[in-house]
Amino acid sequence: MEQHQPDIILIDLDSPDRDVLDSLTIINTHNPKPVVMFSREGDPDFISRAVESGVTAYQLDSISPVKVKPVIDLAMAQFKAFQSL
Q1: Which domain does 37 fall in, by range?
Q2: pLDDT for 48
Q3: What pLDDT, in 10s, does the model give residues 31-81?
Q4: Residue 41 lies in a domain
Q5: Residue by residue, what is the 3-state secondary structure of the chain?
Q6: Confidence at residue 85, expressed as pLDDT on a 0 to 100 scale
Q7: 46, exposed or middle or buried, with CB in 10 Å at 0-12, 13-18, 19+?
Q8: Is residue 79 part of a domain?
Q9: How many domains does the chain have?
Q10: pLDDT of 14
């Protein structure tokens, strides 16, 4: 992350686990970036933990090319608004 300095982090996992969330927490602490997670995991507790770990936008369902750009735009706008607080 430090070397590449991405503008946004995109994650596409069928079933993300706690290790992914732990890694995002570390990233969010040291080098916050907007994070979009695409997943089929619909458990409300998991989604809450994902948001607490730094996920800016969570897309439940399969990825559709039509949906990707609006979700990225939303995540970047939400991240920018949160950072300005």
Answers
A1: 9-84
A2: 95
A3: 999 999 999 889 999 999 999 999 999 998 778 888 899 999 999 999 999
A4: yes
A5: CCCCCCCCEEEEECCCCHHHHHHHHHHHHHCCCCEEEEECCCCHHHHHHHHHCCCCEEEECCCCHHHHHHHHHHHHHHHHHHHHC
A6: 85
A7: middle
A8: yes
A9: 1
A10: 84
- Note the pLDDT of residue 2: 77
Tracing tokens 């039509």 back to the chain, one arrives at 66
pLDDT of 83 above 80:
yes
Residue linked to tokens 């503008």 = 7
Lay out the sheet containing 35-39: strands in order across.
9-13, 35-39, 57-60
* Interatomic CA distance for residues 75 and 55, integer angstroms: 9
**Is 62 in contact with 41 (CB distance < 8 Å)?**
no
Helix axes 18-30, 44-52, angle to 10 degrees: 20
Residue 46 within any structural domain of the chain = yes
